[in-house]
Amino acid sequence: MTPEAVTPEPALLEADRVDVVRGGQYLLRDVSLTVRAGEHWAVLGANGAGKSTLLSLLGAVEHPTAGTVKVLGRQLGRVDVRELRAHLGHVNPRHPLRSPLTVRQVVLTGTTQTIEPDLWHRPTAEQLDHAEELIHTLGIGHRAEHAWTTLSQGERGRVLIARALMPEPRLLLLDEPATGLDLTAREQLLESLDELRARYPEVASVLVTHHLEELPGSTSHALLLRDGLTTAAGPATEVLTTELVSACFRHPIRITHSEGRWSARTRRGAE
Ligand SMILES: Nc1ncnc2c1ncn2[C@@H]1O[C@H](COP(=O)(O)OP(=O)(O)OP(=O)(O)O)[C@@H](O)[C@H]1O
């Protein structure tokens, strides 16, 4: 080994030449993706491109029709997926909670991975401290005693990220976390994600979105999907380009990257 050789970070997710076929239709075809510790991937594509299908494989919710998926080193199909899911932070913006639990209580349900509090489980002092730390990191300390039912959508999004981080997952999966947020709420959410990534540098994440404006500045890599196929994948600055994003969305788009953030608009005269 040469002195300059650097050992790569361990792969937390490895999808290798994955197909997903449902109802005789390819939802994903020959998709490969490796996510290492500290990497923050964005998965982008138009409606129906297969983004949520890919995230459900990575979250051990669905199995591939062909190819292999290894999550935290364990291959789907050969492992108890419930046990595996306990080590993943999966943020579902459609969290089905209806009861007026407080923010703190909702965050603590992350330890048991239940929607309602598990009455048989008393949180330990460490878990209570960890919940406080996450609540503050996500900027919702002033809402800790407020009921879930009274929170805005943006506040709920941040509560769900704190909840997902309770079991100290090495991998955070985020499905369109900024959808439906107003400008301030979106910016606060993205800022929280940047802070979180700085605070827990060993955690990796995969974030699905349609919109480049919804990418945190800490996004390190991107994968572009079109009709279930990967059109580009790699470091964000190489993939989120005018040419590659236009090809992915089949639309002449101009991409700008300024102060660490991306934006997209139609290229005038090129339609
Ligand atoms: N169980 C299923 N059987 C057949 N087709 C399905 C099934 N689930 C999803 N699809 C189709 O697969 C395609 C990919 O769906 P998916 O939800 O992964 O796309 P997406 O990129 O997340 O879309 P969106 O941006 O609209 O959320 C869509 O055309 C969808 O209608």
UniProtKB/TrEMBL annotation:
UniProt keyword terms in alphabetical order: ATP-binding, Nucleotide-binding
GO MF, one annotated term: ATP binding
Protein name: Putative ABC transporter ATP-binding protein
Xref: PANTHER family: ABC TRANSPORTER ATP-BINDING PROTEIN (PTHR42794:SF2), HEMIN IMPORT ATP-BINDING PROTEIN HMUV (PTHR42794)
Keyword Transmembrane helix attached: no
ABC transporter domain: residues covered: 13-252
Keyword Transport: no
Pfam families (alphabetical): ABC_tran
The organism's taxonomic lineage, starting at the top: Bacteria, Bacillati, Actinomycetota, Actinomycetes, Kitasatosporales
